[in-house]
Amino acid sequence: MLLTDPDQFGIEWGWDFEKDEIDPDATYVSETRSSMFWRFDGDAKLIGEEVFNRKPDTVRKANDDDIIMTKEKRTEITKQYWPEEIKAELEAET
């Protein structure tokens, strides 16, 4: 998870820095373990999702080796899979 707002950091979780040490212009990477469970009905239709996250194991300033997925990059990569009506709607907005 990328953290860009100092209020997202959950300082009370005991990470190794204080709030005033956070660079507001930097991007930080939060590494944690998650568990995801999906429930299905008898017809294999998805009927629910539960996601459990524990407190992050580490939080650190992002570096050049990290793969940072911005909203723009994600849009560029996934756009080919969007339904045509969504593509048309987004293109009309720009």
Structure characterization notes:
Keywords: Plasmid. This protein has 94 residues and is of the alpha+beta class. The chain has one domain (2-93). The protein has 2 helices and 5 strands; from the N terminus they run βββββαα. The strands form 2 sheets. Strands 1-2-5 form a 3-stranded antiparallel beta sheet, with no helix packed on it. It has a two-stranded antiparallel ribbon with strand order 3-4. Strand 3 (34-40) and strand 4 (46-53) form a beta hairpin. The relative contact order is 0.18. The mean pLDDT is 77.
What is the overall silhouette? flat
Mean pLDDT: 77
Amino-to-carboxy terminus distance: 28 Å
β-strand number: 5
Radius of gyration: 18 Å
